[in-house]
């Protein structure tokens, strides 16, 4: 990439923010949630929304734009990757499912600039999130362990928060390279 994009912002109050604080859908009035599970869900929901915000307003070509060679990482690849890992996490405590996008790295390799691929990625991600959420919410004891390695329900929730947070950092850099939009 030879051209450095200018900074992009929808905000009018603080030029270095994406949106004005009053318009940020992640900001909630009132106290934080009570309880461990509610707190984990709140953080996970916030990172999920952040990822979608980082993809907002981009076309298929922009979403599929790769970072730097030899990396295959793109915003579209991240959407597909997170759908794939949600499916994998569900398989940790239920019946493992076939991979969504084929062999290893199919989530990133198949992230091509096609509107149908983009639409399918959003549908896949929502479906897999919903399935994993529903299965995990049925396990009310966060200390319950399952599988050969004794993974706890708590560990799976925390791991999901960590995975989305890490990839939101990647998405920050990818988005800034596309149009200069920076994180908030």
Summarize the structure.
The chain is mostly helical. The protein is 53% helix and 2% strand. It has a two-stranded antiparallel ribbon with strand order 1-2.
Task: Write structural notes for this entry.
This protein has helices spanning 36-55, 60-64, 75-93, 106-109, 115-137, 153-179, and strands at residues 145-146, 151-152. With 184 residues, the protein is an all-alpha fold. It has one domain: Four Helix Bundle (Hemerythrin (Met), subunit A) (Up-down Bundle), CATH 1.20.120.450. It has a two-stranded antiparallel sheet with strand order 1-2. A hairpin with a 4-residue loop joins strand 1 and strand 2. Helix 3 runs parallel beside helix 5 and helix 3 packs antiparallel against helix 6. It is flat and about 50 Å long. The mean pLDDT is 87. It comes from Aeromicrobium piscarium.
Q: In percent, how helical is the residue content?
A: 40-55%
Number of helices: 6
How many distinct domains?
A: 1
- Gross morphology is flat
User: If you average the pLDDT, what whole number results?
Assistant: 87
Number of strands: 2
- Topology as a string of helices (H) and strands (E): HHHHHEEH
User: Major sheet, described briefly?
Assistant: 2 strands, antiparallel
């Amino acid at each position: 990439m030879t051209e450095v994009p200018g900074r992009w912002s929808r905000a009018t109050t603080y030029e270095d923010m994406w949106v004005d604080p009053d318009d940020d859908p992640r900001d909630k009035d009132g106290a934080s949630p009570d309880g461990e599970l509610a707190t984990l869900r709140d953080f996970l929901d916030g990172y999920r929304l952040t990822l979608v915000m980082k993809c907002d307003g981009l076309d298929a070509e922009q979403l599929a734009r790769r970072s730097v060679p030899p990396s295959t990482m793109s915003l579209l690849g991240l959407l597909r990757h997170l759908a794939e890992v949600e499916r994998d996490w569900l398989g940790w405590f239920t019946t493992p499912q076939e991979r969504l996008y084929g062999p290893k790295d199919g989530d990133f390799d198949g992230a091509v600039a096609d509107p149908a691929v983009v639409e399918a990625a959003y549908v896949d991600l929502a479906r897999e999130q919903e399935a994993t959420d529903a299965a995990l919410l049925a396990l009310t004891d966060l200390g319950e362990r399952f599988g050969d390695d004794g993974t706890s329900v708590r560990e799976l929730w925390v791991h999901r928060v960590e995975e989305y947070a890490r990839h939101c950092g990647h998405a920050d850099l990818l988005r800034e390279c596309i149009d200069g939009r920076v994180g908030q």
